[in-house]
Amino acid sequence: MAKYEIVGGTPLKGSVVISGAKNAAVAILPAALLVSGPCRIENVPDISDVRILINILRDMGATIEYEDANTLTVDCTAINSIHPDPALVRKMRASYYLMGALLGRFGHAAVALPGGCNFASRPIDQHIKGFMALGADVDESEDYVNMVPGVDGLHGARISLDMASVGATVNIMLASVLIPGRTVIENAAKEPHVVDLANFLNTMGAHVSGAGTDTIKIRGVDALRGGSYAIIPDQIEAGTYMAAAAATGGNVLVQNVIPKHMERISTKLQEMGARITEYDDAIRVQANKRLHNTTVKTRPYPGFPTDMQAQLCVCMALAAGVSRLTESVYETRFFGYCTELANMGADILISGKTAIVTGQDKLHGATVCAHDLRAGAALVIAGLAAEGTTVVEDIHYIERGYENIIQKLTGLGATIRRIEE
């Protein structure tokens, strides 16, 4: 098992370049299943979730060649399997996008239920609702989802989601771009990576409109053709480094970002006393004095992202006054990392969906355990800000979503190393 050892107490300073968006990449790679011909994809993050998806696609017959660490060509023309390796599928949550992609290409699919971070129960009932509306007969067991065309075949449909689910929105988009007719997704998710997927599909010849609004319209086409596409920067990775700069009292230029995607994160850090300066494709975060308390409620985009909840909680744990952090997306997300932060001296009281955080003058180093991807990132931030040495265990969660985190933090002056055991 590998772990991170962090000697904290040093403000982060310098610049960091943000990688391609994890949440976009894990949707766009399955989308390549729908394309006849090679797709050249740039700004692909070199993270474990992406490597797992690449192994799944190769195992199914795809040809994948790397031009460099972050640019690859994917050709899924020769794929003829509807059965991705269940052992690989169960290693990550976003593998459920294979369901929509395979249904859209072949009209039927058999995919194991996914794995990934276990911070909450995340059912796929809205995905299934969408597939059935598109004309699929769906058989869901404890381990598998099997789909075949219904008596009327696959067809366009109007689908109103019960909640603005990113996963369901993406899966319905993937399933519908190649089937006949017009599909309308109401109450669709608006996140930047949903828009990025739509842009990728359109670049390859799809007809998707309305992405970024609550109504997405898809007109089915006969085929998608190969092309070239660059993935957007990672909103959550950028926010993580912004929070790390604020928590450590640092001065960091976060490069390769889309500032509009960062508005809610920037606003909250600014409310807490950090100085935020926006440029065309970069944001500088300066924290020259102690942060102060704030109130945050997570919401679907364009609200404050649930994936930044844990990182901001570390800033709250060091801020003057009492902060309140309410989680409206995944209610049980607090329970793993808040206990770990308490071991480092944080004062956090959980009351229902809200964490009440009383800021402390300092945190102290401890041995802590990452329970999921973003919780792990928060513990790294806490270790960077704390006095003494912090050891973060179970870092495989962190490496699911953060490319070259050791090199990037070291470049900002942090004392951090990866230890193999």
Number of DSSP helical runs: 13
Q: At the fourth CATH level, what is the homologous superfamily of the largest domain?
A: Enolpyruvate transferase domain
The chain-level structural class is alpha+beta
Cα distance, first to last residue? 5 Å
Describe the global form: globular
Percent helix: 25-40%
Task: Let me know the average pLDDT.
Answer: 96
Output the CATH class name of the largest domain.
Alpha Beta
Q: How does CATH name the architecture of the largest domain?
A: Alpha-beta prism
Largest sheet: 4 strands, mixed
* Rg from Cα: 21 Å
Low-confidence stretches: none
Which percent band covers the strand fraction?
A: 25-35%
How do the strands line up in the largest sheet?
Answer: 21-22-1-23
How many domains in all? Answer: 2
CATH fold field value of the largest domain:
UDP-n-acetylglucosamine1-carboxyvinyl-transferase, Chain
Number of strands: 23
Structure, explained:
The chain is an alpha+beta fold. It has two domains: 2-19 and 233-420, Enolpyruvate transferase domain (UDP-n-acetylglucosamine1-carboxyvinyl-transferase, Chain), CATH 3.65.10.10; 22-230, Enolpyruvate transferase domain (UDP-n-acetylglucosamine1-carboxyvinyl-transferase, Chain), CATH 3.65.10. The protein has helices at residues 22-31, 48-59, 86-89, 97-106, 125-133, 166-176, 192-203, 235-247, 263-271, 309-318, 334-343, 373-385, 405-411; strands spanning 2-7, 13-17, 35-42, 63-68, 71-75, 109-112, 136-140, 144-149, 158-160, 182-186, 207-209, 215-219, 224-230, 251-255, 275-278, 282-286, 295-297, 322-326, 347-351, 354-358, 367-369, 389-393, 415-420. The protein has a four-stranded mixed beta sheet with strand order 21-22-1-23, with helices on one face. Strand 17 (295-297), helix 10 (309-318) and strand 18 (322-326) form a beta-alpha-beta unit. The relative contact order is 0.16.
